[in-house]
Amino acid sequence: MRAFWASLIVLLLLPQVALAQSPGLFDADGGKLTAVGWDGFRDTKFMIESIGALVLAIALGAAIGFHPTSRRTVDRLTEADMPKVYIMYAFIAAVIGVTVREFGMVIGVVVFGIGGLIRFRTDTGSTRDTGRLIAVTLTGLVAGLGLPHFAIITTAFAFILILFFDATPACRVKIDQLPSGRLHESADAYRAVLHAHRCKLIAEHKSSAKDRLEFVFRLHRSVTRDRLHLALNELPVELRGDIDWEIE
Q: Could you give all domains of the chain from N- to C-terminal order, each with its CATH number?
C-alpha cells in the first residue's frame, strides 16, 4: 500500500520539478509537450533512429534472455518463458528512453508514475501479460501526447513480438501413474513423440519414486496442443500414464 501511494505522489508532483529543470522542452502554459501531431511522419530521421533503437534493445534483450546457460536451470514453466519477458521489457525500456530523449523528462516522470500504478495495483496473473499491459499503456500515452508516428511504430513492434512469441508457446506436460518399473522406457517413448512433432525440449524431469515424468518444451508453430495430446495418448498402454497440461 505504501508503494502505491508513493507512486501516486510521484505521478502527481514530480512533473513540476522536471519542468523547472527543463523549461525549454515545453511551452510556457503549464509544461505541455510541443505539438507534433501527424507532421511527425515527415521526420524520417527520428523514425529511422527510433526503429534502430528498438531493434537494438530487442537484440540485446534476446542476447541475455537466450543465454546458452539459461536452459540448464529451467525448472518451471515460467522460467522457460522468461526470455520472452526479458525481450518485451527491453523493448518497453527503449520506448521510454526514446520518448524521454526526444520529448523531455516530464514524460519520463509520468511514465514512471503510470508504471508504478500498473505494477502495484494491477493483477494480470503473469509477467508476460504485465509486459503487454505496459506496452499497450505506453502506446496509448504516446498517441495521446500527439505522437502518432511513434505510437504506430511502437504498436507494430509490439504486434510482431507477440506474434513471434505466441507462435511457439512454452508448455509443461506432467505424466503421472506410469507403469511401475518402466519409467525410462516411457520417457524414451514420450520424448520420441515430442521430437516427431518438432517440439523443442527445454527440460525433462523423472521421479522414480512417484512413477512420474515431466517435460518442459516449446510447441512447434505447425502443431496444436490437441493434436499433440492425441499423439501422446496413442502410446502403448504399458508405457502410458495420465497427462496433465500447462501452457504459459
A: 2-166 (no CATH), 170-247 (3.30.2130.10)
Q: Which set of grid coordinates corresponds to residue 174?
A: 506432467
What residues does 33 pair with on adjacent strands? Answer: 26
19: confidence class by pLDDT, cuts 50, 70, 90: very low
Write down the residue that cell numbers 519414486 correspond to: 209
Mean pLDDT of the 53-65 span: 89
The Cα 208–Cα 185 span in angstroms is: 12
Cα 32 to its chain centre, rounded Å, is 32
Over range 76-85, report the average pLDDT. 74
Report the predicted TM-score, pTM, of the whole model to 2 decimal places. 0.66
